[in-house]
Structure formats: structure tokens, C-alpha cells
Amino acid sequence: MAPRKAGIAVAAVVIVIVLVIIIASVAAYYVLSPKAASTSVVSSTGSSISTTDTSTVATTTSSLTKSASSSTSTGLTYYSGSFNYTIPIGPSGVRSLPNGTAQYYNSTQMASGTFTLFIAADNFSGSGTGRGTYTVTTRGFCTGSETFPYTFTIPDATTILGGNITIFFSSPVPSNYSVPLTCTGDMTGVSTATNNPGPYLPVYPNEITIPLASLPTSKIFHGTPSAIFVWSYSLKESG
After folding, report:
1. What digits encode the pLDDT tens for the residues 205-228?
2. DSSP per-residue codes, the chain
3. Most CB within 10 Å of its CB: which of 30, 150, 222, 223?
4. Are 213 and 114 in a shared domain?
């Protein structure tokens, strides 16, 4: 009987070992399997993201940030422009001579500069800023000149007026010129304060309209190079 019992005991041990091996194999499958390890649940509401996989969160967040940045960039159209003008405005005066003739002094304003602006796609409007150099020169029996740099704003620019971009210029700083005059001859009844000091336009004219079809680069010129009343400006898409 002893040998039989010993055989039964050995068989029982073998069965236990086999069961242990099977259980260990199943556990190892669920712990080490790549498919099980990569399982995650991702839910998204708007821009919020939750996930059980850390690497998935990083990748998805990066993608959303890039998309938002791209949307902001493509929602704005940027423009840059330049301008110059020469107009016969400024300090002026007249006096009568004993022989019945008249003498005059008058002025010419000249300015040039650049500006930048943007237009938003959602409301077809935008704004901008600019800078320039202004000179006013007086000639005649009173003479003088003043030159200074200035800045200005573009409080509104719009493409809502079908087919055109309209730009409004405003608020030059400084807001006025003042020309120190030197005069000769009899000044009886003559004032050197006529249009002095006085305001000036940051860009002439103070509002410009350019057909969108003329872009990406548009150049507008008025007058002739020898004329005393000349203004021009250009505009291009800059990004």
C-alpha cells in the first residue's frame, strides 16, 4: 500500500505544478501584452481632453494648440503701405503796395512715411499705425521752415464696402506745425498768424479707398511730378 500512496502523492504534486504554470501564463499575458498596455479611453468636449494614456494627452494637446494658432493666423490679413504728398497749404498772407500791386507769402507742406494695418476675417475691419516725416516751407516776403517726425493711427480699416479696402487716418502726434517766420518790408496790416500754427493731415487724403482686385500690390498716383498739388500711396498684402 505504501508504494501506491506515494504514486498518488506524486501525481497530485504534478497537477498542482501544471495549474500554477497555467495561471501564471494567463496573468503574464494580461500584464505584458502591448495591446492591453496601450488601451486608453479618450473623451473630448470642446477643447478639454481626458485620457488614461499620458503620451496621448501630450500629442493631442500639441495638435489642438497648433490648430488654434493656425486659426488665429489665418483670421487676420496684414497690409503695409507707404505715402507721400505735396500740397499748397500752410502759413500765408498778402499785402498791398503803394503802386496798387500785391505781394504774397505762402507755404507748401510735404510729408512721407509708412503704415501697417490688419483686417479681421470675422468682421471685415481692423486698425493700424504709421509714422512719417513732415516739412512745411514758407516763401515770399515772409520765409521760414519746420521739419519734424510724427506718428499717427489708423482707427478703422474695412473691406465691408464690396470690392474695396477703405483706410481712415487720424491723430498725428504732434498735432500742429508752427513755422517761425522772417519777414521783410512794411508789415502794416499783415498777420503772420494766418494758418500758423495749424493742423496737418497725417496722410493725404485722410481717407483712401483701394480696389481689392489691385492687390497684392497697389500703387496710386495723383497729379504730375511738376505739380504743386501731388499725392500718392501704395498698399500691399504683407502676410
Report:
1. 999 999 989 888 888 888 876 677
2. -HHHHHHHHHHHHHHHHHHHHHHHHHHHHHHH-HHHHT----EEETTEEE-S-HHHHHHHHHHHHHHHHHHHHHTEEEEEEEEEEEE--SS-EEEE-TTS-EEEEEEEEEEEEEEEEEEETTTSEEEEEEEEEEEEEEEESEEEEEEEEEEEEEEEEE--STTEEEEEEEEEES-EE----EE-S--TT--TTTT-SEE--SSSSSEEEEEGGGTTEEEEEES-TT-SSEEEEEEEE--
3. 150
4. yes
On whether both 41 and 135 belong to a single domain, the answer is no
Residues 181 and 210 in one domain: yes
- At residue 225, the pLDDT reads 64
Average pLDDT of the residues in 113-139: 97
Domain that holds residue 27: 2-73
Structurally, the chain folds into a number of domains equal to 2
Range 109-127 average pLDDT? 96
* pLDDT single digits (tens) 147-160: 999 999 999 999 99
